[in-house]
Design a protein that fits this description.
Rossmann fold, alpha/beta, 38% helix, 18% strand, 14 strands, 5-stranded parallel β-sheet
Length: 421
C-alpha cells in the first residue's frame, strides 16, 4: 500500500440495483479508515453514484461494449462477459498496485461474477465476497479461490435493513483489517506442495516435511478434505509450486463416487497443466467420505465404516469402484506436461486399511493395485513398493525420486544457505 493507514478497497457490485447497499459499504469503509474504489458491473441500468470503473470500462476490459453485452442473448451470457471484464480489470489494478483488497456483494448473479474475480487474484491479496449463497453447495469447489473469504448476506435482498447492515459493516471491517494485516507470500526458498489427510490416517508428512525442509525447501501441507485440495489446485494453476507431492488423492475418489467432500473435477490436473513436476500416490482413495450427521448412503450401507468425528465419516468403496478410480487417476496423469512419478504402496494406502483395523479390505486393495499396474503408462513412472503408505519405505522411495529429479534439474535446487544466515 502506498499509504498503509488508508488501504484502497475495490468495491464491486451492481450499482443499478444495489446502490443503497454499496453506498452504505462505502461509508463503512471510509469510516474505518479506508479509501473506496468503486467498480460498477450493472448491465441494463446506471447507478446513482459515479464509479471510478463504470460498466463501460468493465465491458471494454472484456473486449466488447455494453451494447454488445446487452445484445449477447440473456442475463447469463451478459454477466459472463461482465465477469470476464471485471476479472481482467481487477487483476490489472492489483498488478499496478492501485488497490489493496477486493470486496464484492451479490446474489447468485453477483456471486457468480465475483468468484471469477477472486480466482484472477494472487494468493495473499485480500478478497471477500458477501453473498446470499455463501457456504452453499450451489458453489462448486473449482470456483473457490485458495484464500477467499465469504460471509452470508443475511437480509440481502431488496434494500437495507438491520440484519443487512450488521453483515455489510462486519464485512467492510474485515476487508479493511485484512488489507492492513495481510502478508503477501514472498518465499525465499522453492515451495513444495504436500497433500495429506490429517496425521492419524496418513502420517508420512511427519518424516517428509523435515527432510524436504532440510534440503532447502518451504513445504506447504494441504489437508485433503475437499477445500484443502481445492486450495492446492488453485495455487498450482497460478504456477505457485516448484514441485507437488500429491500423496493423498481421496478427493479424486470422492468426486468420482459422488461425495460432496470433493475438490472439483479438475483435481489432480492443475500441476500438470502448469508444467509442475509431481510425485503422486493413492493415499486414502479407498475411502468415500460423507457427512457423519446424515445416514450412511444406501450404496455404502454394507461397506466397512469409520466415523472420524461428528462432521465426517467414511466407508470403503467396492473393488470395481476402486478399479474405476485407478483408471481415472491414470487418465488425469496422462495429460500432464511435466514429469510424473506414481508411487504404488501395495501394502496399504491409509492407516485403517491394515489387518485388524475397521477398513481392512485386502480384496479391494488388490483390485486397485492390479488396475494401477495396467492403467499407468509411460511417460508416467510407476514405482511399486511392498510397503504400507505410512511405512519408512514409502518415505524413502518418495525422497529418492525427489532427489533424483533435483540432481537432473527437473526440480529447482533448494536454498539451504538461507537457513544458515
Amino acid at each position: 500500500m502506498t499509504n498503509s493507514s488508508r488501504p484502497r478497497i475495490l468495491l464491486i457490485g451492481t450499482g443499478d440495483t444495489k446502490a443503497d447497499e454499496l453506498l452504505f459499504m462505502q461509508r463503512c469503509i471510509n469510516l474505518a479508515g479506508g479509501e473506496t474504489v468503486m467498480m460498477d458491473i450493472s448491465v441494463l441500468g446506471d447507478p446513482s453514484y459515479e464509479a471510478q470503473h463504470d460498466k463501460h470500462a468493465v465491458a471494454a476490459a472484456a473486449g466488447t461494449t455494453i451494447e454488445a453485452v446487452i445484445a449477447s442473448g440473456d442475463e447469463n451470457s451478459s454477466m459472463t462477459l461482465m465477469a470476464r471484464g471485471a476479472s481482467r480489470l481487477t487483476r490489472q489494478l492489483c498488478e499496478e498496485g492501485k488497490v489493496d483488497a477486493m470486496i464484492a456483494i451479490g446474489g447468485t448473479m453477483g456471486t457468480d461474477l465475483a468468484l471469477d474475480v477472486a480466482l484472477a487474484l494472487p494468493l495473499g491479496f485480500p478478497k471477500l465476497i458477501v453473498s446470499t449463497i455463501a457456504f452453499s453447495h450451489l458453489i462448486p469447489p473449482e470456483r473457490v479461490a485458495a484464500d477467499l473469504m465469504m460471509i452470508l448476506w443475511a437480509g440481502g435482498l431488496y434494500g437495507l435493513n438491520g440484519a443487512c447492515k450488521a453483515v455489510l459493516s462486519q464485512a467492510c471491517g474485515a476487508i479493511i483489517g485484512a488489507a492492513r494485516g495481510a502478508i503477501r507470500p514472498r518465499p525465499e526458498r522453492p515451495i513444495i506442495a504436500l497433500t495429506s489427510l490429517g496425521k492419524s490416517c496418513l502420517s508420512y508428512m511427519v518424516e517428509l516435511k523435515p527432510e524436504l525442509e532440510a534440503r532447502g525447501y518451504e513445504v506447504v501441507v494441504f489437508h485433503t478434505t475437499g477445500m484443502g485440495g481445492r486450495a492446492m489446485e488453485s495455487i498450482a494453476s497460478q504456477h505457485g509450486f516448484a514441485a507437488v507431492l500429491d500423496l493423498s488423492l481421496q478427493e479424486v475418489a470422492n468426486q468420482l463416487m459422488g461425495s460432496v467432500v470433493n475438490s472439483g473435477s479438475d483435481r489432480l490436473m492443475n500441476a500438470g497443466r502448469s508444467g509442475i513436476p509431481q510425485i503422486v500416490a493413492p493415499g486414502a482413495i479407498d475411502m468415500v467420505d460423507f457427512p457423519a450427521w446424515l445416514p450412511v448412503p444406501a450404496e455404502l450401507a454394507d461397506r466397512p465404516f469409520h466415523a472420524h468425528n461428528r462432521l465426517l465419516a467414511s466407508a470403503t468403496s467396492k473393488p470395481d469402484d476402486r478399479r474405476r478410480i485407478a483408471r481415472a487417476i491414470a487418465a488425469k496423469l496422462s495429460e500432464t506436461t511435466a514429469p510424473v512419478a506414481f508411487v504404488l504402496p501395495a501394502g496399504g494406502i491409509q492407516q485403517w486399511d491394515q489387518d485388524g483395523e475397521p477398513l481392512h479390505d485386502p480384496d479391494g486393495l488388490a483390485a486397485f493395485v492390479e488396475e494401477v499396474r495396467a492403467a499407468i503408462r509411460p511417460p508416467v513412472e510407476l514405482h511399486e513398493i511392498k510397503d504400507h503408505i505410512n511405512g519408512k519405505g514409502f518415505v524413502a522411495t518418495v525422497l529418492a525420486i525427489f532427489d533424483r529429479w533435483v540432481a537432473a534439474g527437473v526440480v529447482p535446487a533448494g536454498k539451504v544457505a538461507v537457513e544458515q544466515t
